[in-house]
């Protein structure tokens, strides 16, 4: 399925999803990287060694959810835009998700952005809490989006442009 559509299955996603007990402790990285390719910038970027590509560079990454603190450094280094940070402790009703984003225009903080699922389907309009620009050497931006908690593992992108003024 993934090979034909580029969209991971629900079973694929379950293999990289932390427990609700772990979600309750704060932000955590979700590495939605399912193809065996020679790649490991995520592992090299993590100072805590919480993400590992082992025993060789062709394996898919594994996040140690007990070690990861959700700092988001790996998210900006992944060339596949495959890493997301999910924080279900953001508020009583919303989760904060951090998404890698490489399109222009960028949204502005306080605007609403149209959230998309992994298939590119619209999931609703959600507040942009923060936009973290890329660095000189790595231009991947991070979009911080507040979404209802039940969509924390569904929204994985925003539609570029067409942003609305905030709530
Ligand atoms: S979010 Fe931070 S601590 Fe967690 S795997 Fe990525 S770089 Fe490591
Ligand atoms: S950097 Fe991204 S694409 Fe490469 S192994 Fe890590 S998660 Fe997969």
In terms of topology, how is this protein built?
Blueprint: H1 2-5, H2 10-14, H3 20-23, E1 28-31, H4 41-45, E2 51-52, E3 62-63, H5 73-77, E4 83-87, E5 94-101, E6 112-116, E7 122-132, E8 141-148, E9 157-158
Antiparallel strand pairs: 1-4, 2-3, 4-5, 5-8, 6-7, 6-9, 7-8
This protein binds iron/sulfur cluster (2 copies).
Residues 31, 33, 39-42, 53, 61, 78-80, 82-83 line the site of one iron/sulfur cluster.
Description:
With 167 residues, the protein is α+β, with helices and mostly antiparallel strands. It folds into 2 domains: 1-86, Alpha-Beta Plaits, CATH 3.30.70.20; 90-167. Helices cover 14% and strands 28% of the residues. It has 5 helices and 9 strands. It has helices at residues 2-5, 10-14, 20-23, 41-45, 73-77; strands spanning 28-31, 51-52, 62-63, 83-87, 94-101, 112-116, 122-132, 141-148, 157-158. The chain has a 7-stranded antiparallel sheet with strand order 1-4-5-8-7-6-9. It has a two-stranded antiparallel sheet with strand order 2-3. Strand 4 and strand 5 form a beta hairpin. The model has no long low-confidence stretch (mean pLDDT 95). The chain binds iron/sulfur cluster (SF4) (2 copies). One iron/sulfur cluster binds next to helix 5. One of its GO terms (molecular function) is iron-sulfur cluster binding. Residues 59-88 form the 4Fe-4S ferredoxin-type domain.
């Amino acid at each position: 399925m993934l090979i034909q559509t580029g969209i991971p299955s629900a079973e694929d996603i379950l293999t990289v999803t932390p427990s609700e007990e772990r979600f309750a402790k704060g932000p955590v990285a979700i590495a939605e990287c399912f193809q065996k390719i020679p790649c490991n910038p995520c592992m090299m970027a993590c100072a805590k060694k919480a993400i590992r590509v082992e025993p060789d560079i062709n394996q898919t990454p594994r996040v140690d959810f007990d070690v990861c603190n959700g700092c988001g450094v790996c998210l900006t280094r992944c060339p596949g835009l495959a890493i997301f940070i999910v924080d279900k402790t953001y508020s009583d009703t919303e989760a904060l998700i951090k998404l890698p984003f490489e399109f222009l225009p960028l949204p502005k903080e306080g605007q609403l952005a149209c959230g998309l699922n992994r298939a590119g389907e619209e999931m609703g309009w959600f507040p942009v809490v923060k936009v973290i620009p890329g660095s000189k050497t790595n231009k991947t931006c991070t979009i911080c989006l507040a979404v209802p908690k039940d969509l924390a593992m569904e929204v994985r992108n925003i539609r570029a442009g067409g942003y609305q003024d905030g709530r």
